[in-house]
Amino acid sequence: KAGVTQTPRYLIKTRGQQVTLSCSPISGHRSVSWYQQTPGQGLQFLFEYFSETQRNKGNFPGRFSGRQFSNSRSEMNVSTLELGDSALYLCASNNGQSYGYTFGSGTRLTVV
Amino acid sequence: QQQVKQSPQSLIVQKGGISIINCAYENTAFDYFPWYQQFPGKGPALLIAIRPDVSEKKEGRFTISFNKSAKQFSLHIMDSQPGDSATYFCAASKFRNSGNTPLVFGKGTRLSVIA
Asked: Which among A96, A102, A103 has CB closest to B99?
């Protein structure tokens, strides 16, 4: 059974640019959550999508957005990148009816 | 406001020793307490989890102890091995019919097991 797949693994972007990250959940999982991981703030929740609808949202500015497609794949977008957006962005999937979350390996975003 | 506080930040343990990591939570509505293990370059992987209806759960060398009245839970790694060297995160969430609340994570503990 394939795990959670995140692409790309690494990205380098310039301040002011925008970026789109992709996440393919485990087959059959309808919930996809996004987390930002930084050395200073740790793991912080960005948002969760379930059946193409945003179900929960963390405390991040509107520059961070996401969406989910009918096949449960999800994308997150960050516009007008800032140096502080440099982080590991993690996606986690869940079947929507149990507790366990499975994380992908993440996308390492570096903003220069 | 940090809802889950984890300690220590780093831990060095001799091979064969016991590693103990502690977490305290504030929100009494939480009803799911997982521990995640993360190796460099990888995402967190679920190690073991507990619900508040039991005080202890053991899986192999890993044990969670849960104290509901103190709002604390801890991870014990028995017979620690160099391969256990990783960062460990505690977390908490609440199950709802409309879906779990997001995981709230502790800041993490970097464990180094030395031979």
From this structure: A96
C-beta of residue A39 within 8 angstroms of C-beta of residue A28: no
Q: Which of B63, B59, B86 is nearest to B75 (CA)?
A: B63
Q: Under DSSP, is residue B84 helix (H, G, I), strand (E, B) or coil?
A: helix
Tokens of B106: 């502790």
How many angstroms separate the CA atoms of B34 and B31, rounded? 10
pLDDT in tens, B54-102: 999 999 999 999 999 999 999 999 999 999 999 999 999 988 777 778 9
* Candidates A42, A50, A92; nearest CB to B99: A50
Write the secondary structure of A64-107 as one string of H (helix), E (strand) and C (coil). Answer: EEEEECCCCCEEEEECCCCHHHCEEEEEEEECCCCCCCEECCCE
Question: What is the arithmetic mean of pLDDT over A36-65?
Answer: 95
Contact B111, B84 (CB under 8 A): yes
What is each CA distance from A18 to A58, A88, B105, in whole angstroms? 20, 16, 27
